[in-house]
From TrEMBL:
Alphabetical list of Pfam families matching this protein: MerR_1
Organism field: Faecalicatena orotica
Entry keyword set: DNA-binding
Name of the protein in question: DNA-binding transcriptional MerR regulator
Source lineage: Bacteria, Bacillati, Bacillota, Clostridia, Lachnospirales
PROSITE patterns in alphabetical order: HTH_MERR_1, HTH_MERR_2
Domain HTH merR-type: 1-68
Domain of life: Bacteria
Molecular function GO labels: DNA binding; DNA-binding transcription factor activity
């Protein structure tokens, strides 16, 4: 699959996919004339990278995770540890945002009750 096709199915720009490749997050084979050739498995991997990014994992940690992934099954315990640590971070962020939402809801309720009909 071409970079354009991967971009369409993952909804990630070609520019970003090239950047991921440059940073070593994805490894891509090339055809005889040098065009990138993505595999079916790259779709889920790229989507997973995006989810890690969207949930606040730092790029340097995504790079480390990716490097370990490409090293193979022997690195699974370290990758598991990374994901467990990131899960705790996501839970902390979720709690923080829930508190922000509660505060916002209280302020909205205050205004609803304070504004005469």
């Amino acid at each position: 699959m071409t970079i354009g096709e991967l971009s369409k199915v993952t909804n990630i720009s070609e520019y970003t996919l090239r950047y991921y490749e440059k940073k070593g997050l994805i490894r891509v084979s090339r055809d005889p004339i040098g065009r990138r050739c993505y595999e079916q498995g790259d779709i889920e991997w790229v989507k997973f990278i995006q989810r890690l990014k969207d949930t606040g994992m730092l790029l340097r940690d995504i790079e480390k995770y990716s490097k370990l992934r490409y090293e193979g099954a022997a690195t699974m315990p370290e990758r598991l540890e990374m994901l467990q640590g990131h899960r705790l971070y996501v839970l902390e962020q979720q709690k923080k945002w829930a508190e922000y939402l509660d505060n916002l809801d209280c302020k909205i309720e205050f205004y609803k009750n304070s504004i005469p009909d």
